[in-house]
Amino acid sequence: MKQGLYLICGAETPDPITSFAKEKAGRPDALLCDPAGMTDAELRKFAAAVQAENVAFIVKNDVETALRIGADGVQIDYRPDIKKIRSKIGDIALGVLCATRDEAMRAGEAGADYIGFDGENAKELTEWWAELFNLPCVDFNPSDSSDSADFRVKPLGG
User: Partner of 6 at 20 to 30 A CA spacing, among 21, 33, 94, 103?
Assistant: First the structure.
């Protein structure tokens, strides 16, 4: 299986647009952006640059900002109100970062478009998920990621 590339832009990423321009040759599928410290104008400009390359722009843990700036999706940490969020965001992508099998199954049932795993059990959870489910998954542990993940992560500029 060919893994897709999922870039991650943290609040500490210097000059995200320039950093993305250097990474786009790797043909990323999506970019997860932590909006902390960025204005809506900066986020819109960054999203436009990413989307112009046919790369999905996903906002981390901020549903309102994702909707306001025209993001392609939002990724949230697992929480019980996923159905409500799914209803609120409409057709944009919804990713849910999970820490357990139960959270992942509940998120999938509630309408998540993809599941993410992080932490010390990410590889094990990713391999379990990939064996049983068709919903895409992302292993957010780049130092020991699973080949079973649909997407591999790479820090933007890293």
Answer: 103
Q: Rounded CA gap, 69 and 18, in Å?
A: 20
Alpha helices in the chain (DSSP H): 16-23, 40-51, 63-69, 82-89, 101-109, 122-132
Question: Residue 133 is part of a domain; what is its CATH number?
Answer: 3.20.20.70
Torsion over CA of 109, 114, 118 and 121, rounded to 10 degrees? 60
pLDDT digits (tens, 9 = 90+) for 123-147: 999 999 999 999 999 999 877 788 8
Tell me if the pTM is above 0.85: yes
21 Cβ contact list (under 8 Å, min separation 6): 49
Q: Count CB atoms within 10 A of the CB of residue 11.
A: 12
Q: Which two tokens stand for residue 110?
A: 């509630």
Note the pLDDT tens digit of each residue in 41-59. 999 999 999 999 999 999 9
Total domain count, the chain:
1
